[in-house]
């Protein structure tokens, strides 16, 4: 993990600030940093989104490919996650340095989406036991400034919202052979229902309180954090304790409650924003990576 | 490349035939007693068998058996750290490695560590680290290796218990033992310490389904590891965590006794005569 060195005096300063609900950058304990979302940033993907959260920048590209359904669930497609921690973000990730973090992030994403309601996997099926859509969700970390989980989950939700899967028609010839035909019309595509896609909220325990959206400095002051993925309805799809410390049961309950509250509040503005951007259509001014 | 035309070539990749069985009893009954006679909706953990010190080469080792879940753990160290580039040399490092034997699950797995194993290793490390006095072992590393011999559910929970026992057996200074317990929520009812079938069963499209694993430090009353997946409401999760803690407390005397008997065997009390 990208880390920063924070001296003891600085730690005390951050700790005392958080105790009084005032963080170094002026936020309260449950406030996010300024967030920017842009969808449809990479033309070669079926859906993409870029999210910047403070100085954390994440780019997600989704590619849909036709694959074979898993034998256990022949009538469902599936999602594949891969998180790439490139050396761009911090030199620590050079070579195999980022592999561990990338693995940790991607396995957590599998857990977050390991339920029946997040994405309607049945809609990804083309023909049962033969063909299905496989969505490759590739996450690229462009900059690291803490709170990777939240930024990634928001970017994935935005990218899934943006994903356009081409419609296919199956024609059966006389011998019973099946042929898949792609529609010629580029606008004839299937959209995914993202209402139940969860967002991750990371809560860092700093002193006796917990903060949402911790910067690297704040993260250096905390021993353990709890990541909670919450859907729009407030169901929790994944909880995980990360970091080398332990937590009191009572504080875990407090943090889950706070995480649920913050997570639930995150969804409505996000969807509204995405729909607003979508409605602009071609008129939308592209910001790109330098904005 | 010359090919053998006399024989039929098998496919390059193969899958276990069990995947293709039409499986009628995939859904476990969600009411009534469980397949192994334990009670639903109660903190009814499987009886466990634990022993320390079976591997003579290791500094500490432990074996745990809960129903058909069998795993062993070896602890090595503290020894000089291999990675010298680490900036933080004031603290020791805990290295964990968890592996499934290829024959441990119904389907054969390869010897190469997959992502699941690596994820479990990471969970194990995060669960054990808070309990170990790593500051007492500067510039050194402690290694914990877990081998799952037979997987019949709740592997991570038992691996945590087993690993902490092996560390204690190795004489590593610790704040507390770490106990693991897992549960599976299935609609309104739950099962504690689920078996492999209970773990992987998914009954219909019901809400409130998921697995939860908790690592708990009993005498400090701290949770060192928490992991859940599936879908749960906040209230379910909270009661689930409480249930798992209760399960850990049930485990505690057994583990203590196993540890005490090992110590007694290693250094028998002086006979008063």
UniProtKB/TrEMBL annotation, chain A:
It is found in: Cytoplasm; Nucleus, Nucleolus. Its main location: cytoplasm. CDD domains: RNase_PH_RRP42. Keywords: Acetylation, Cytoplasm, Exosome, Nucleus, RNA-binding, rRNA processing. Pfam families: RNase_PH, RNase_PH_C. GO terms for cellular component: cytoplasmic exosome (RNase complex); nuclear exosome (RNase complex); nucleolus. InterPro entries: ExoRNase_PH_dom1 (IPR001247), ExoRNase_PH_dom2 (IPR015847), ExoRNase_PH_dom2_sf (IPR036345), Exosome_comp_Rrp42_subfam (IPR050590), PNPase/RNase_PH_dom_sf (IPR027408), Ribosomal_Su5_D2-typ_SF (IPR020568). GO terms for biological process: exonucleolytic trimming to generate mature 3'-end of 5.8S rRNA from tricistronic rRNA transcript (SSU-rRNA, 5.8S rRNA, LSU-rRNA); nuclear mRNA surveillance; nuclear polyadenylation-dependent rRNA catabolic process; rRNA catabolic process; TRAMP-dependent tRNA surveillance pathway; U1 snRNA 3'-end processing; U4 snRNA 3'-end processing; U5 snRNA 3'-end processing. Residues 32-166, 196-261 form the Exoribonuclease phosphorolytic domain. GO terms for molecular function: mRNA 3'-UTR AU-rich region binding. PANTHER family: EXOSOME COMPLEX COMPONENT RRP42, EXOSOME COMPLEX EXONUCLEASE RIBOSOMAL RNA PROCESSING PROTEIN. Component of the RNA exosome core complex (Exo-9), composed of EXOSC1, EXOSC2, EXOSC3, EXOSC4, EXOSC5, EXOSC6, EXOSC7, EXOSC8 and EXOSC9; within the complex interacts with EXOSC2 and EXOSC4. The catalytically inactive RNA exosome core complex (Exo-9) associates with the catalytic subunit EXOSC10/RRP6. Exo-9 may associate with DIS3 to form the nucleolar exosome complex, or DIS3L to form the cytoplasmic exosome complex. Exo-9 is formed by a hexameric base ring consisting of the heterodimers EXOSC4-EXOSC9, EXOSC5-EXOSC8 and EXOSC6-EXOSC7, and a cap ring consisting of EXOSC1, EXOSC2 and EXOSC3. Belongs to the RNase PH family. This is Exosome component 7. The gene is exosc7.
Automatic annotation (TrEMBL), chain B:
It is found in: Cytoplasm; Nucleus, Nucleolus. Its main location: cytoplasm. InterPro entries: ExoRNase_PH_dom1, ExoRNase_PH_dom2_sf, PNPase/RNase_PH_dom_sf, Ribosomal_Su5_D2-typ_SF, RNase_PH. GO terms for cellular component: cytoplasmic exosome (RNase complex); nuclear exosome (RNase complex); nucleolus. Residues 45-173 form the Exoribonuclease phosphorolytic domain. Keywords: Cytoplasm, Exosome, Nucleus, RNA-binding, rRNA processing. CDD domains: RNase_PH_MTR3. The keyword Membrane does not apply. The keyword Nucleus applies. GO terms for biological process: nuclear mRNA surveillance; poly(A)-dependent snoRNA 3'-end processing; rRNA catabolic process; rRNA processing; U4 snRNA 3'-end processing. One of its GO terms (molecular function) is RNA binding. Pfam families: RNase_PH (PF01138). Residues 1-12 have a biased composition (Basic and acidic residues). Signal peptide: none annotated. Residues 1-39 are annotated as: Disordered. Belongs to the RNase PH family. Non-catalytic component of the RNA exosome complex which has 3'->5' exoribonuclease activity and participates in a multitude of cellular RNA processing and degradation events. Component of the RNA exosome complex. This is Exosome complex component MTR3. It comes from Betta splendens (Siamese fighting fish). The gene is exosc6.
